[in-house]
Design brief:
Blueprint: E1 3-7, E2 10-12, E3 18-25, E4 34-39, E5 46-51, E6 58-60, E7 68-73, E8 78-83, E9 92-98, E10 103-104, E11 108-112
Parallel strand pairs: 2-11
Antiparallel strand pairs: 1-3, 3-8, 4-5, 4-9, 5-6, 7-8, 9-10, 9-11
Length: 114
Amino acid sequence: QVQLVESGGGLVQPGGSLRLSCAASGIPFSMYAMAWYRQAPGKQREEVAFITSSSSRTNYADSVKGRFTISRDNAKKAVYLQMNSLKAEDTAVYYCNAGMGRFWGQGTQVTVSS
């Protein structure tokens, strides 16, 4: 059974930081590209960050470049999203994704507000 479990969301003030984690099980994690998506109320789900299986390449949405960093630890079967300089427009449910859309986590809420 495939499981992707996100954690680390919460309420943070503008300019603050959060680190999201996603723990994977039931898949050959080191063979899968991973990504973080987010969905704000009334908006479509969008890809925020992507990382290849070997961490050789990453890609970011223009809206988060320079502020967010995706990383992974294949030994721990985990992927992370470090979010700095958070803005109100970063408020969304953040989802972990494996295999380019194949598997999804349940999501974790990130709220940026003063």
